[in-house]
Design goal:
The protein has 291 residues and is an alpha/beta fold. The strands form four sheets. A nine-stranded mixed beta sheet has the order 1-15-13-7-9-11-12-4-14. A two-stranded antiparallel ribbon has the order 2-3. The protein is globular. The protein starts with 22 loop residues before the first helix and ends with a strand.
Length: 291
């Protein structure tokens, strides 16, 4: 049973690799700001956002709107307001996978039992509320720029290619980095025709291990699952198993990275904070890169 980061930050730790982000990492990240340009890395959230077949889509209800006043609702002092409610899966669009999201052999990250994730209590261990806000150096490994084209569905992005992308950008990965990988998958999809969630370019286990061993606090990509789909024969979400369960590295999926890549960004201030949903297995996020 592989457990590379288990116990590294204590037997009761539920944060994992983001423990690598300390005051020095935050100060370094802040020092990278040069122009002040802020780039959103999030997909817009609406009921038109494609979702895989096994997940519910978003529901958006207006609780109070202009129609209520047209129908005679009171407006004391002329005051009027609108409010609404959204019901959505936590793994929708641009989102973070918490450390309770994926496990194997009945153990979560740090050896917590898989039985601590229950429908009646949600996740008692490693829920997304345990994840701190991430403010650190972001680095972009731009596979699209390296290849000169968008990676094709089903193509594997291996360790050597990530290393080559880092070298081409003059990057050396450091403890606490948020590593973002641009495959081009999302920007190549036609949302009006529905996204193909069963085949995408992505990293393999060897590439994932290099990122973990290089000190990544978080790994994100512009695809559905970070890893290549279909999975290698005889495996099921092998990158999720290794990064989330074995190394305690949260994953940030569905990033929008085209603008960041076209800006020629390599390192930048990265900020992302999940919603502190108690017992949640993930959270929508709206990360930003500040250049």
């Amino acid at each position: 049973m592989a457990k590379e980061a288990w116990g590294r930050w204590g037997e009761q730790d539920e944060v994992g690799a983001p423990n690598l982000i300390g005051p020095s990492q935050v100060r370094l990240a802040a020092s990278l700001v040069r122009t002040g340009q802020v780039i959103s890395l999030a997909q817009p959230i609406s009921d038109r956002l494609p979702v895989p077949g096994h997940r519910a889509g978003l529901l958006h209800f207006m609780g109070r709107d202009g129609g209520d006043y047209a129908a005679g609702a009171k407006r004391p002092g002329g005051f009027q307001f609108a409010e609404d409610t959204v019901v959505l899966p936590l793994h929708l669009g641009t989102h973070m996978d918490a450390l309770c999201h994926a496990w194997c052999d009945d153990h979560l990250y740090n050896g917590f039992p898989g039985s601590t994730v229950r429908s009646t209590t949600r996740a008692l261990r490693c829920g997304v509320e345990k994840m701190p806000p991430l403010v650190t150096r972001g680095v972009l490994l731009d596979v699209v720029r390296l290849r000169g084209e968008i990676a094709k569905p089903g193509e594997t992005i291996g360790r050597s290619e990530l290393q080559e992308a880092a070298l081409a950008s003059g990057l050396v990965l450091q403890d606490g980095d948020a590593v973002l990988i641009r495959t081009g998958w999302l920007e190549s999809q036609d949302a009006s025709r529905g996204l193909n969630f069963n085949e995408e370019p992505g990293i393999d286990v060897e590439a994932a291990l290099w990122l973990a061993e290089s000190g990544a606090a978080m790994v994100g990509a512009d695809n559905f699952a970070i890893e290549v789909l279909p999975f290698p024969t005889g495996t099921v979400f092998p990158v999720h198993q290794r990064l989330i369960r074995d190394y305690g590295i949260p994953l940030l999926e569905g990033l929008v990275l085209r603008a960041l890549g076209e800006a020629g960004a390599t390192e930048f201030l990265f900020v992302a904070a999940p919603l502190p949903i108690v017992g949640g297995t993930g959270s929508p996020v709206a990360p930003v890169a500040v250049l």
